[in-house]
Design a protein that fits this description.
33 helices, about 45% helix
């Protein structure tokens, strides 16, 4: 049963269970026990399962380890310390594992100094980077605390000798559980924990998490089930332990009328001012390219303040050495400012940070609080964070995000369920270790939260696949991994190479690589695989400053044509962007509805400004800007909300565009747009182009089409089937099938010492994809690839909720034919043009659109407004004008040379 622990223990109770040496060491370092320790130390001591959720720097790790160190010190002093692993600590990051080793060895050395003799307590790290010699030493001198990663835990569970050292583990600590629970690494870990529990029945589980929701679900993920009953787990929720100083800032008064160069300069002036007012600042961007750009521009604009040794970038594309150097310099206080994408969100020790800056929306409340928590890392320090916004949509989004953060409304994470590729890996691993009956195996797998609802039919399909019952797959070099005896129901390993194949192909992180882009035989550049996944034939994108139309891909080559004369449908940074969480999207939608109600009630401007000021915790300037934005939308069109999806139609240079205002986040909009595109294609025989954002999506075609009719054909009953058909032949499905096939060991990444490239794997998987479709459209790995695309990558569950809301009349779909997109559509339109026109032209584009809207509003109200250009405004012609302007400038530059 999952219970929330309401009462902390007293300091006296904790002192009474701790060994005198532990007490002496602890109070030589700290004045008192922290709140997480008062709640958690006794629970860990009593070997009860517990999930501790607290902000960064709130002593979670010491809370988890204090009782364990106490037990080891007590056993060492009594001379009864055994040669076995007492505690397994699991971290998602190798760097964090090394931090923990250091942070455990230092206290143990200090305790030995206090005791005046060695205690003999051993701590060791075992990850993919650990040398073989170190692993061999662990067999002779078993670490009492083993620090590892999810992948390495799965390997040691299959190591014949080391597995024996894990037969009486008392505790398992899962750190940064929020970073694991929402992906397949967490699914993989949940099964490893059940396998560990099977050989160590007395195991208690300790989860350490930053801000996360829903805590009850994460607790179930941590502890799993015993038969049909969920295991007991106590939840310690001290997520809002620290004081928080959070603000949204805008560098200029008007985010739409200001000149770009002024906005750009003011933004850097603001960043510089904030950095100079603090000792060490950590800046988060949402893409790697933005990280590099911010570092470069700060150096260029303020060279005397940012020499190389005081500023650094940190993101996943940098070398391990470079990242480690930056982390080390941060710890030593040598850096004034570090700019990161997402790589410093997790709890690596980076020393003292007194300010966190987020450039643009972090897209989820939990992510913002995790980023903000890097400032004021100490227990009683105030968390100080600022979000800098550069457009009106960002201003509204971040204001609502800040409100949710202050009011402790955390967006819920999605936990994958019944992933068939991961279960295949563990079935193989278990079969290598022992002969086991499939009914016993099925019950073991269903103890994991991630597989508690696993249907027998899906499980048995995996047994059939792994035991080679699909003979036709042998033609594609997919052989049986296990044997299955139908009479006894037992399975076991097959082949002498089984253990080596398993050890060298384990894990869930797919091989990612770059795709070569070609026009015919001519190579024009490279794109990353995540970007290719999002492309559909006919999509337009920018590469190296040129516009290309995507035709198809083969293996690791994408074929394009250079004759695209339309704006891009997929922005170049699309694969890097974080999606808006559904919960935060719904908060914004509710606010939109409240605003419309006030306009309908004809409240005065002062009353509405006061409402925004009170509701959103924003200053007067921001409140004025938000009210003006919403007023323009209300006067020009209608305000979309949680109860209204708005369709706006207009024609530009003979092409029909429909903007769908559905602020549900990109993952939901991906589902809705694909389903609508399929329906329009089938029923209205139109080839529809799509572009998707968090705030909505657009549909476009050469000929007219009826989007409202398409919406009416979507129902809760046919929606999943339509989505399956929409993604079936897409790039995203082909790539995800390869990932799933590699996890399920259909395609081996390594064999006989040879590593297969991602390109060769992709070519092999394309052939395999067609082979398994001939066997069955519901072949388990095919079924899993569909599930991963629709449930993990997209958000089918919430998209289905939207469709159901429409069917039940809770959400209305309304069409407006204004001939011009409304203010809420500006951001969506700019996503396409952003790659092909310069930032200053983009701002000019926004300014002209804004003027056009104001002129139409004035006309509605019987007023005449003087515009800079009186002719009919066209987006495509503006794009052409900007393109020609840039070409002219390039030509003039050449003449100078």
């Amino acid at each position: 049963m999952i219970t929330k622990l309401e009462e902390p223990y007293t300091e006296l109770q904790l002192k009474s269970i701790l060994h005198p040496l532990i007490n002496q060491w602890f109070f030589s370092k700290f004045k008192e026990f922290s709140l997480p320790q008062l709640y958690g130390v006794m629970e860990v001591h009593c070997r009860r399962n517990v999930l501790i959720s607290a902000p960064t720097g709130a002593t979670k790790t010491l809370t988890g380890f204090l009782s364990i160190l106490n037990e080891l010190v007590d056993s060492a002093k009594k001379g009864i310390l055994e040669e076995k692993v007492y505690c397994v600590y699991i971290s998602p990051l190798k760097a964090l594992s090394n931090d923990i080793e250091k942070n455990l060895k230092q206290p143990l050395a200090e305790m030995e100094q206090l005791a005046g003799k060695p205690l003999g307590i051993r701590v060791a790290v075992r990850t993919g980077d650990t040398p073989s010699s170190e692993k061999a030493k662990m067999l002779k001198h078993t670490p009492h605390i083993l620090i590892t990663t999810p992948e390495s835990l799965a390997i040691v569970l299959n190591s014949p000798k080391f597995k024996e050292k894990l037969k009486d583990v008392q505790w398992c600590i899962v750190d940064e559980i929020h970073a694991l629970a929402e992906n397949k690494r967490g699914v993989h870990l949940s099964l490893s924990l059940e396998r560990l529990q099977r050989i160590s029945p007395g195991l208690s589980r300790v989860g350490l998490s930053a801000t996360i929701a829903p805590l009850e679900e994460v607790a179930r993920f941590l502890v799993g089930y015993n038969g049909e009953e969920e295991r007991d787990c106590g939840i310690i929720d001290v997520q809002f332990l620290k004081n928080m100083d959070l603000q949204v800032l805008s560098p200029v008064r008007s985010l739409v009328e200001s000149e770009y160069l002024l906005m750009h300069r003011k933004m850097y002036d603001l960043i510089h001012q904030l950095v100079q007012e603090h000792r060490t600042t950590l800046i988060f961007t949402n893409t790697r390219s933005a990280t590099e750009r911010i570092v470069h521009n700060l150096k260029e604009l303020f060279p005397q303040h940012y020499p190389d040794q005081t500023i650094a970038a940190h993101h996943g594309s940098l070398s391990k050495t470079s990242r480690f150097k930056t982390e080390q310099n941060l710890r030593e206080g040598k850096l004034k400012v570090v700019v990161s994408s997402t790589s410093l969100e997790l709890g690596i020790d980076i020393g003292y940070i007194d300010l966190v800056l987020c450039l643009g929306s972090p897209k989820s409340v939990a992510r913002f609080l995790q980023r903000a928590g890097r400032a004021g890392h100490q227990l009683h320090a105030t968390v100080k964070a600022r979000i800098i916004v550069m457009d009106r949509d960002d201003l509204v989004e971040c204001a609502l995000l800040l409100k949710a953060a202050k009011e402790k409304k955390i967006d819920r994470i999605h936990l994958p369920r019944n992933a068939l590729d991961v279960v295949a890996q563990h079935i193989y691993g278990i079969a290598i270790n022992e002969i086991i009956n499939i009914y016993e195996l099925f019950n073991l797998l269903r103890k994991s939260y991630c597989y508690h609802t696993l249907p027998w039919e899906d499980f048995f399909e995996m047994i059939k696949y792994l035991s080679g019952q699909y003979v036709s797959l042998e033609e594609r070099h997919v052989y049986a991994r296990i044997w299955y005896d139908e009479e006894t129901g037992n399975i076991g390993r097959k082949g002498k190479m089984a253990r080596i194949i398993y050890m060298t192909n384990i894990g869930t992180i797919p091989e990612e690589t770059y795709i070569t882009v070609k026009v015919g035989e001519q190579t024009v550049g490279m794109i990353d695989e995540g970007f290719l996944e999002r492309l559909q034939p006919g999509d337009v994108f920018v590469l190296g400053g040129n516009v290309y139309l995507f035709k198809f891909s083969r293996g690791m080559t994408a074929q394009v044509s250079a004759s695209a004369n339309r704006p891009p449908t997929v922005p170049s940074w699309f694969s890097e962007m974080l999606p808006l969480s559904f919960d935060l999207a719904m908060e914004i939608n509710r606010f939109r509805r409240l605003m419309e109600e006030r306009f309908r009630e004809k409240k005065s401007r002062e009353e509405i400004v006061q409402f925004v000021h009170d509701y959103l915790y924003v200053d007067e300037n921001a409140a004025e800007s938000i009210v003006q934005y919403f007023r323009e939308q209300f006067q020009f069109s209608k305000i979309p909300s949680d109860r209204r999806i708005l369709l706006e139609s207009y024609v530009d240079q003979g092409r029909k565009y429909v903007i769908v205002h559905s602020l549900f986040g990109r993952r939901v909009n991906d589902c809705l747009s694909r389903a609508l595109g399929l329906v329009i294609g089938r029923t209205q025989h139109r080839d529809v182009e799509m572009g998707v954002t968090d705030n909505g999506f657009y549909l476009s075609a050469e000929k007219t089409f009826n989007p409202l009719s398409a919406f009416q054909q979507l129902s809760a009953e046919n929606f999943y089937s339509l989505l399956e058909q929409a993604v079936e032949r897409s790039e995203i499905m082909q790539r995800r099938f390869r990932h799933c096939a590699a996890r399920a060991l259909m395609i081996l990444r390594q064999y006989l010492g040879h590593k297969k490239s991602a390109g060769r794997m992709q070519i092999g998987s394309r052939i395999l994809f067609n082979a398994v479709k001939r066997i069955s459209n519901n072949f388990p790995i095919l079924k899993e690839a569909r599930r991963e695309v629709l449930e993990d990558l997209m958000d089918y569950e919430h998209a289905q909720q939207v469709i159901k809301g429409i069917a039940e009349g809770k959400i209305v779909v309304e069409e407006m034919n204004s001939g011009l997109p409304s203010p809420f559509a500006f951001g969506l339109i700019m996503e396409g043009y952003g790659d092909i026109i310069r930032m200053e032209d983009k701002q000019e584009f926004l300014r002209r659109m804004h003027q056009e809207v104001l002129a139409r509003i004035a006309l509605k109200e019987g007023k005449k407004m003087v515009r800079e250009k009186e002719q009919e405004f066209s987006y495509a012609s503006f794009w052409d004008e900007m393109q020609q302007k840039q070409e002219g400038e390039k030509y003039r530059e050449k003449l100078k040379i």
